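Residues determine shape. We examine one folded chain.
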Amino acid sequence: MDVSIVIVSYNTSKILDECIVSIKKETTCAYEIIVVDNASADESCQMLREKYPDVTLIENSGNVGFARANNQGFAIAQGKYYFMLNSDTVILDKAIDKLFSFMENNSDVGISGPRNVGRDGHLQYSCDHLPSFWNTFWVYSNFINRFPKVRLFKRSRMLYWDYAEQRDVDKIMGCSLFIPAALYRQLGGLDNSYFMYFEETDFCFQVKRSGKRIVYFPEATIIHYGGESSQSQNKEMVINKTVLSYFFKSQYYFYQKNYGFLPMLAMRFLDGGYGMVLLLRNALRGDREKKKYGLCKGRAFLSGAITVK
């Protein structure tokens, strides 16, 4: 078996179907597909059983999160390489075959990832530097728009780069990561302490620390729709349920685990300060919808910095 493809699914039946169709159409290397369903309320599991009996399905009774679900899938995987793939993706032009061939010819690479484009075909900035206090500060301060020619302020998602050529990077978006199975097992897979967010960042950190390279490989391209599991929720609900509940917890865990207590504390002060600025900035805003959203976001940042454990 060349490649084990693990897809974590949560209420994305239609696009999951599209994803599997594209895999079957565009892939010639020997592969298996393992879908781990996190207690979807739609017909995802029924669709898989009826249309794709060759797909291995793991049905969880509850939503166990992205990291744990991926680990469940890869625990039974048989491939030489693991491909961590989101359900809201479409494989284009033999992308999996190209990634497999690239990894076969580059044994020093621990992770490779394809070029991602959105529904409209526009490039998605899928690579990034590892998290840091200052990179986050530049984002919060909006210096990228105030000083668009300063490369330092464009470090978030590597906006200073055109993504046209192959390149070693610090991290790649977790929607499509190609990993040697032996390395995944050696590093213990994803850290189950992450429910959502930062799990692929943490894994990339561990891969780099092991001495392996992380390579963006644009000769392979996929479509990544993005955010399909939360599209039915309004912006305020996404902030309150997703950002407050998961993002801050994962961020602070990542910082303390990999950088130490003081850097984690510094991020809490930064997030809290940004929340205060948002609250003050939006308190007198005239546009009611923007005011409501801005205040909700400010409260989430402030509350996250103070209360999230």
User: Anything to note?
Assistant: The longest helix spans residues 235-258. DSSP finds eleven helices and eleven strands in the chain. The longest strand covers residues 213-224.
